[in-house]
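Reposting from the mailing list since nobody answered there.

I have sequence plus structure tokens for a pair of proteins and want to know whether others read the tokens the same way I do. The first protein:
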Amino acid sequence: MNTDVEQIERKTDGYYIGSAGPFDKVVYTGDLRRLKKILSSNEVSHQLSDHLATLTSNGTSNIFCETDPGDISWLYLPDGTTRAHRIIYTGTFAPSNNRGSQRHTCVVEFSGDYSYDFMCEEIKKLPGNLNPLGWNQEPNSYILHSPETKALVDEARLKLKGDNIYLLGRFAEWEYYNMDKAIEAAMQLNKELA
């Protein structure tokens, strides 16, 4: 946990991830685009398509704000009056999400790369009397599909499964999972591996 995986190496007694191992099975939850390189010392990496590295994703810019209390958890903004596409009312989920603020908190999400100053101007157009507290940019938030994506990922999944490497999660399976679908996929894989 909290360790970048640079290499998964297969030896005669199993898989090694860094100095940890041996493992008879690997559940890979990282970015599928990096897996061929991570497995570069394994014969299975030669079976994977170079096209996996060309899969595309979209990033987000997010601004964490205080907001007036409310009773909704999400607000989608499809009307074009702002570049923001949704507000996630994190403070509605649990009081502990409010970081000691007297107000609720929320995250305003923008699809793409936007500056803090731009987002501060945009949140003035939104409901809730928003006050910025922090921000971040995530280069990979949403997977994008092309007509070839499903076949490419299915082929990789089949080859990897034959070598006891299993894909799990949004960027590993290249599926647009929300949390409930991610948990369901993990539970199904757990049953399969049990």
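The second protein, same order (residues first, tokens after):
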Amino acid sequence: MNQCYADFAVAYMSFVPVYILLLFEDSESPKSTLKHIVLGLVCCAGAALTKQAALYLVGVYPILCFVKFNASVRSISRLPRLGYAILSYIVLAALVSPWYLFVNDRIKRGVDQSEVPYVTNQIYHGADLGSRCINSLSTITKDITTDILIFAHIVRLRDSVIIPIAVIIGLLVLLYLVCLGIRDTTPRLLVILVVAPYYVIWTLYFSYGIRNLAIILPVLAVAAGFGCTRIKLLQAFSSPK
């Protein structure tokens, strides 16, 4: 039986509000800034309604907005800006909570069944949090290697030593590019508030599958993209002639 997961959808929906932050320019007016925030909040709520994993984004997105816009919109005093952050949480709660309250009521009445106890505990067969952290590394390499082996089987390279080498090199290159990228303020903010905390949560409670990292993979790609702009060879290709 084929399974259809919401991970691709939630990755897209979670990246849209982040992309809205990336489009923001410091020269924009307070009115335009407010439009950015409202649109981002609506998209953030849409992500949370797509899959529960995006509830983490609901928790941090108003903080991202506050930090991102705080130094830019100087025509608004600091106190109202803090009020906007609090209002953002209220708006998100109003958009997201009705669905989760509805589902929770169905679970209490026995109509639906929650999978949270299974995916956060039972699936690990009694493994403690430390063991989960260690095993999360093997989950990453195993899932990535499996995907590459499928491709390798198509191109008749299944037994080649190139496969594990490619996995290791790919992960190291990604890490290097992200480290370069976080020298810029925006990707550093995203990595500190989104990627790092969510990865810790994943290792402790959801590391049975790499697909549960879906919402932070596009953010990592953004940070790596910023890193690419710092490589002189790539700068030479991208610079206008």
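Reply #1 (J.P.):
I read it the same way you do. The mean pLDDT is 81.
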